[in-house]
Amino acid sequence: MDIIISNSSGKPIYEQITDQIKAAIVKGELAEGEQLPSIRALANSLRVSAITTKRAYADLEATGLIETVQGKGSFVAGGNADLIREEQMREVEGLLAKAVERGRACGLTDAELTEMLALVLE
Fold it and tell me: Which of 18, 21, 37, 73 could form an S-S bond across to 42 if both were Cys, CB 3.0 to 4.6 Å?
């Protein structure tokens, strides 16, 4: 699992870790039951604080994406890829709604907006 941290990103490091692990689960790069690196191992490999990776793992666990077994480690929980995909679809719908709202504020018709979307999809 490759996680890339960007210091120039506006997102906190723990969110970058969380987002990349979520993406890996959705893409199937991390399978159900697969063990994640320990908090300390991930912190060392990313050269960040163990507190930062602990926060990322806590957020992932709170959303049900991973499960932590005391003394054994953290594992990818089952059946969550659909939940993540649904969340991502809601986000895209929100962005599209904002784009439509902005287009209408500029006086664009539905036909013009549809044509623009078709061009972007190409």
Answer: 37
Contacts of 52 (CB under 8 A, 6+ apart): 13, 14, 17, 43
Q: Can you give the pLDDT at residue 52?
A: 97
7 has a pLDDT exceeding 70: yes
CATH number of 13-76: 1.10.10.10
Distance CA 6, CA 23 (A): 16
**Cα 85 to Cα 37: distance, rounded to the nearest angstrom:** 24
* The Cα angle at residue 96 between residues 98 and 9, in degrees rounded to 5: 80
Report the alpha-carbon distance of residue 80 to residue 107 in Å, rounded: 41
**Domain locations in the chain as residue ranges:** 13-76, 81-121
- pLDDT per residue over 42-99, tens digit each? 999 999 999 999 999 999 999 888 999 999 999 999 876 677 778 788 889 999 999 9
Q: For residue 111, count CB atoms less than 10 angstroms from its CB and return exposed for 0-12, middle for 13-18, buried for 19 or more.
A: exposed
